[in-house]
Design a protein that fits this description.
The protein is an alpha+beta fold. It folds into five domains: 178 residues, 7-stranded beta/alpha barrel (Alpha-Beta Barrel), CATH 3.20.110; 135 residues; 97 residues, Nuclear Transport Factor 2, Chain: A, CATH 3.10.450; 69 residues; 108 residues, no CATH class. Strands 10, 11, 12, 13, 14, 15 and 16 form a seven-stranded antiparallel β-sheet that branches. The protein has a four-stranded mixed β-sheet with strand order 3-4-8-7, with helices on both faces. α16 packs across α18 and α18 packs antiparallel against α19. The longest helix has 27 residues. It is globular.
Length: 727
Amino acid sequence: MNNYSWISFSFSPLLLDELSQEAPNVYRRLRDADRDSLSRWGHGNALAQLPHPVILPLASERDVKIQLDWAFEAFEHHFHRAPEGFFLPRQAVNFSVIDELIERRVRWILLSPWQVQGLMRRGEGSWSTLGNAQLNTDRCYAIDRPRGSLGVFFHNIALAEGIEGGHFLKNATTLAQTIREILDHSEGNLASTAVDGTWFGHQEPFGDMCLAALWDELKGKVNLSNYGSAMEHFPPVDLVKLKRGDEDAGISATCPHGVERWRSGCGCGEPARPGLHQGWRPGLRQAFSRLQEALTASVEQTLEELGWPAELDFFQQVGKRRWRSLPLLPENGLQDPGKIRLLLTCAEVVFHSQALLSAGLFEGSEPDSPEALDAWFAAARSIDLAHELTAQDIEFSFIQELSEVFLNTQRDAAQFFESQVLPYRKDTSYPAALFVLDHLVRAGIKDPIVLGNFRLLNLDQARDQIADKVFRYSGALTFIEDKRDKSWTFGYLLVEDLHEGVSLFLQEAGDTSAPQAFDLTKLPQGERDQIVGLLSGDLEDLLTDSTEDLFPLLRKSLVYSKLLGSDPLPVTKTLVSLVLNRRLSKELGKGLETPDEGVLDRIEQDFDFAQEFKIQLDDERLKNLFTDWLSKVIDGPHRPLDDPTLQTVDRLMSILERHGLRSESTVAQTMVFETLTGSGMRMISRLDGGEWDVLPAIRNLIRLGELFHIDTHPLQDRVLHLGKHHG
């Protein structure tokens, strides 16, 4: 029994591509199912779907057209006909999307009854508002637009909920009886629903077998059909008016606000858990949108340089090349192999960049679901490819934007990208190269070296001087990916020429081909900056140690320069800057592990001195050190906060803010919030039980919250209420 011959179905074009190669028998039976239903009912069961699950109402006009064009190319390639029905990601729609579907001659779509605002019988001219009433899902409706009309089917929610979790797929006889009862109590002539295909065997074991038995239970008792046939035999007579959503942006099946779930922190569809937020969504969407814009600009610039015909839509050609197997180049096009390679790279950049704003990236409490990771990897792959098209460092700009997006797991999105995505985006020569460079730069570090999901097991090294100021490092390294418990071994050769530069060659164990040169310039900008920073840090330490002894003389020189109204030597301020940055780094690091008034006084004096003599400080480093210390002090909801610690936090924040260094304390704010909602409320319960000794700790929590600009009124109100209650 081929169940797909009897139900409407929709597969991602990319999944169909994969099935055609990896599971050709399954792929053939899907096509047979559509052909059988077309023969039986005059309409095929297959619905079209976008190649990437993008929320179309939030996409640009150009991207909407690209996604729909590609969906049609893919559907016609796989099923050898034009699609009648379309299944939209998250059933998100607005009038612009509807107009595009009508223009492409789509006959009907599937939506949720919750998306409807009102009804009107064709020809009557007045709308009736549904309010809280349930829409009858037993018929086809229509949306009339200036360009034409689009049919709309709405699934039966009770039937869907019964299948998705209600175990309706345990018994075909009972399910058939339920369907007949729905039809018996319906004014119309249709019973249908829409569910995730994973329920037919994966989430509900043997659900596919129940479905196969269902057809025998229903045959002769009801007329089996599909949506296209139902619309033909019972054309719509009622029009529906859809809700518009917040800011008229559009409406979806899973967000009462419209489409805010994918661009703001409305929280729809997410479990309510204390301390979690979706405030990262707007910033993440902006970062990915700007990345997409930068990638598009690099492609368009390359096309212009290559002389691509302006009248030929390259983005549309990408879909035709993938699903129609048409050549990318127009007739009498480019012949130069190098230019052809650039065109093919442009095509791949375009394809991956269209996956960047997939819906799954913005769902959940963190952007780390499998669907979200697909978008992250598409970003990494697009960036890699774009290196061939433009000299602009797109990756650096992207990571800079991500660093301003703070997630729930006490990290920013840049840290997530660098630890969870970048190590996977290339072959394993990428982490191998980083391990070699990291080991050379930090030779004295004995802590284990970890890069994302990879951990260095061992690295041996031989060093030879082969010419004047030319050194050769060689050996082997082994590293492991803990998640999959898989290890790799590479041989390496690094030539360090202090005149010409550095060359690195890698060869994986067992590979008999010649060692491959690793292009160090293709490392992410952040990695390159870190390597240079580590080397510069060693130099800075040596200079600072030497300069510390001269500091009294340098200080005296600055004081006299100010008294005499004469500018100090530039080298004087440079050396003083080295010493002050080193001192403050130590004081904000090691010094604060056991803070006392002496440490705080020295910090304040150094900041005052820098401000008085206009000494350049490393603001970012100092802010990060302070933020790290704050995060350790406010280490979750179980750490007691005593008076001295609170006073230290208060004074340090005052010192830094007075000198224009407001700490980046989003992580600490999250911890404070968790403390207020966790420990704070537990202390309130103890207070209610008569344990008045917790009152000072509650007072400190309230003061801490105020320091971080968090609303503490709920906690204060509870304390006041208990005070009045207990007299």
